[in-house]
Amino acid sequence: MKRKLVTVLMTAIIGSNMLFAQTAMAADTTAQTEDTAKADETSEANTEELKTIGEKPEKETEGVLDVKLKNLTGKVVTGFAVKNEKDEKYPENFLKEDDKFAADEERELWFDLNKKDETSDAEKTEDAKTEENAENTEEKEIPKYNIQLTFEDGTTSEIHTFPFGDTEEAELHLEGSVAYLVFDSASQKKS
Fold it and tell me: How far apart are CA 31 and CA 33, in angstroms?
């Protein structure tokens, strides 16, 4: 009889331990799910809060690139223009009127590689011939883009060969009158 009683007690203890363990695991899983949901909401809110430079497309489009930029120049940027390095002049400002890219601010730059450059008809005809010749060669040149920054004090600086497609995040820096980028290169796997 003592054996039966000990066996029943042991079974009850084991059963209650298993029930307690399952309850604890369920509570932990619920807490983790809530934490994950809160983290997802926070990251989505942070992504949506970033102001843009350029126009963000309504739907995902091939040839439209975006880079997260942080202004560490120590100056307020009032003008931001991107051009193909072969073009003579910069197109219109990517920043809207009265929009200023403040020092230490982070924004998302959107750039459409498919957008037509504002060049003359003669240049377009010559470019078409050049492209036709380039297609006939085995190596096709990758277009390079420059950025012109205009600061609140009226000064300007250029960044040559912006790494579109090679980085997701970059920092704008200014030393004297020379602007430069700090970024991690995806192709070279280094900063």
Answer: 5
